[in-house]
Amino acid sequence: MELGSGGMEAPGSPPGGVGGSPGSRRPWDIFSAWLQCVCVVTFDLELGQAMELVYPQDIRITEKEKTSICYLSFPDSYSGRLGDTQFTFRMRRSVGQRSCQFQEDEKYNREAPVTLQVRIPSRSNLTEGNAIEDPHQEDPLDHPWHITGIHELDLFRSLQSVLMNLQLLWELVLLGEPLVVMAPSPTISSEIVLALTGCISPLKFYSDFRPYFTIHDSEFKEYTTRTQAPPSLLLGVTNPFFIKTLQHWPHILRVGEPRMSGDLPKQIKLKKMTKLKILDTKAGMYTSYKPYLHKDKTVMKQLLKGLQKTLPSSTLSSILRRHLFELTQSFILPVERYMGSLMPHYSSITAWKNPPQVRPFQQEELMKTLEHTGPQLGSGIKGDWMGLYRRFLKSPHFEGWYRQKQREMSQRLETQHLQVICEANIAEWIKNKSEVEIVDLVLKLRDKLLRAHRQHLPVSATSLQRLGCHIDAVICSLPEDLQSILHPN
Question: Among 232, 86, 216, which residue's Cα sits nearest to residue 152?
Fold first, then answer.
């Protein structure tokens, strides 16, 4: 499949893409904001890859794009397995709408990745009627949809061969370090990469990740160049060629097919980067990174007990997921508390002044706070927690988390200020005010009301209605000439 970015319009769709009336739009016209087209590529032993079908048929694809799609669709190996297949799509959302339909995106919003997990059905699942072409069918895209999180996978099975180095991997992911996962198959590389992106929950993963990367991907040169440092990225690969081209990456996890050694699969050992060989590289965690925290043996004991009791993999995954969740939560909670302390007190918010500002974030102030409230005081895991915090504050995950918190706090202040205004006695306030001050108040209140609707602020409909009545009452107190300007209808 060839994916398009947000804002893409398919040829023949009504102006504005998804902006036409529901009755005049086909389901594909709506979905084209997410997907450019679907391509079916076949492989001929004599001719090679060939594009057999493109849907919608009127989509224009350049020869360069056709060649790229055909290369990327080439299977890494023969697979005769039957049943459903799950694919993970990552859609890079552009900052604004494209001006040209096939123009290359030069920038995209890395803070807003969209991830879908879809099931590709077999031919037996299809009915004789084509639902896409049925204009009378209810459009499922007109309603909110819950998309199952891709990280809800079998965590234990995905990470079973790296459990002894889980603490180290957790730190690398938390700090947004560049990490390559070299695996024998796309399935294994994808599962490990996706499992690692979810191991820092409830903290959102803000770096980039590629579960299965090939030499035909457009970022190949960017990721293999030695002229600049590798980006903050989790990269899953299978081609042995990458052992040479990615040798300069600081952290490389090489895994093989899981082999049982007692109750657990044979565990990946920690190895120095100098041991990484281009030919016949053995499985191992190749890195010079020294973890800040000591290994936590508690979770390994729990997993071994579970294996001895023959607990199902889903239960072992729950144990592992809870351990990682609590570890990340204990790490980020003190920073959350510090951010909360930067919020102005509700009593300092008044209706007749702009809302107070959030106090600026001070790293050293946070570090002093962490000395008395950090997880090192109650956690059973020992180590250099303060050093880990200092490194984390330079990571993309902290940057993304901090920006999100800033937005949330600003929105909370906006909401509180609006609530105070709704409860204020505006009629009393305007008694001794000039016409200029009153008109200025009307404009500010209208702006507040507009932003409340646009930002979907959590303010009750009753409060917003009361604010609208306040605005009308204030306008009615003005001379008729001003009323006609402010209330033209």
Answer: 86
Closest C-alpha among 362, 346, 339, 467 to residue 413: 346
List of residues 6+ apart from 309 with CB closer than 8 A: none
Q: How many residues does the chain have?
A: 489
Report the C-alpha gap between 417 and 395 in whole angstroms: 33
The tokens for 274 are 């100098």
Provide CB contacts within 8 A for 133, sequence distance 6+: 26
The answer to whether the Cα torsion of 470, 474, 475, 477 is positive or negative is positive
Closest alpha carbon to 450 in 437, 466, 464: 464
Asked if the bond preceding 56 is cis, omega within 30° of 0, the reply is yes
Strand partners, 43: 49
Beta-carbon contacts of residue 186 (< 8 Å; ≥ 6 apart): 76, 211, 212, 236, 238
pLDDT of residue 81: 57
Tell me how far CA of residue 366 lies from CA of 337, 340, 430, in angstroms: 10, 12, 44
* Domain boundaries along the sequence of the chain: 17-84+100-107+122-142, 155-297, 323-406, 425-486
Cβ distance 23 to 82 under 8 Å? no
Distance CA 449, CA 156 (A): 49
The structure's pTM equals: 0.73
Say if CB 457 and CB 411 are below 8 A apart. yes
Strand runs (DSSP E) across 148-199, as ranges? Answer: 179-182
Tokens of 34: 């997410």
Measured between alpha carbons, how far is 396 from 325 in angstroms, rounded to an integer? 19
Phi first, then psi: give them for residue 478, nearest 5 degrees. -90, 165
Strand 208-210, strand 85-91: pairing: unpaired
Please write the tens of the pLDDT for every residue from 432-471: 888 888 888 888 888 888 888 888 888 888 888 888 888 8
The pLDDT, as a whole number, for residue 97 is 36
- 285-314 pLDDT, tens digit each: 999 999 999 988 888 889 989 988 889 988
5-to-25, 119, 146, 223 alpha-carbon distances in Å: 20, 21, 20, 22
DSSP 8-class letter at 413: H
Q: Does domain 155-297 have CATH number 3.30.2010?
A: no
Beta-carbon contacts of residue 98 (< 8 Å; ≥ 6 apart): 5, 7, 8, 105
